Structure prediction request, 348 residues.
Amino acid sequence: MKKLGLIFIILFSVNLTAQSVRPIRDHVGFCWTKSEVEKVMTYLDNDSSKYKNLSGKNLVAGISPHDDYLYAGRVYFPLYRLIKAKEVVIFGVTHGAVRRALHDPKNVLLLDNFDYWRGPYGNVKTSSLREAIKEKLNPDFFKTSDEAHTIEHSIEALIPFLQYYNRDVKITPIMVTDIPFERMDKISSQLSMIFLSYIKKNNLKLGKDIFFLISNDADHYGKDFNNAPFGVNKKAHDKAVSMDREIAEKYIGAEINKTDLKNLTKAIWPNKEKIIPLWCGRYPIVFGLLTITKTVNGLGKKLKGKLFKYSDSRSEWVLPIKNTNLGTTAPFSYEHWCGFFSAGFYAE
Prediction:
């Protein structure tokens, strides 16, 4: 019996060590301890009365910032307080650091192999949905890279907020690279069928059991980004913010359809013919909404969006939250600022 017990302990230990955990990328902009998360949430909860008109009924998807909490905390908050789902699919950005390290991957989704991701309340398990995607999605449509997901911060930013409201939440992390719209259409059609199969097989309900999130920061404005078409003063800031908000309200705060998403690419994808905002999420937004819309349509419903809150780091300044390890990873001024917004999408 003692030998059997020893064997069990050894096997159990081996199993634990075999499980991989994705390490934290940004220890400054986001908070990774229970006490820090709760301090941030307690502060933000003082604003909760402002969002009583925002409903969680039929809410199945959202757009979230991934900027520093001290800048964008008030913009994250209205969305996450409404998310109750057991698992969340997250469409993340492929930032420049990843593109440089991986020689600029394009035309594919990037998946990972990690069993868990770090969270402030313990490790967050990856959903079995990810393995279903690897098994069923055309191999030409994705690559698996733990390196890419280790370098990228746009998905991890969402985890502390998600886990605060659901300690047992599971995630399916999907990074979106630069993909032409026509190819996005093909990939999203196949991926949405995988989502629908998974939802039906497991008898899941949208919004209650599974939720979709898109990680996005809006305009990155200033000389540091080589993006200052209106100048670098208050008037220029107001003009750029107005352009940002107009795009978000036109394409996000409406019924989502393929034609409008195609037009959205003309407003936020690189275009030499006109001034466009430099959104850090321009590919995940289009791909994510294409996929989510097809999934919702496949269940006999339509997807309608609502802009929850827009702001920017120059307008928000820095939240006065003290005695934490939180900091800012970039300056804020008329010469360097970042826009961000949160939005919700309802199945109707």
The first strand starts at residue 21 and ends at 22. The radius of gyration is 20 Å.
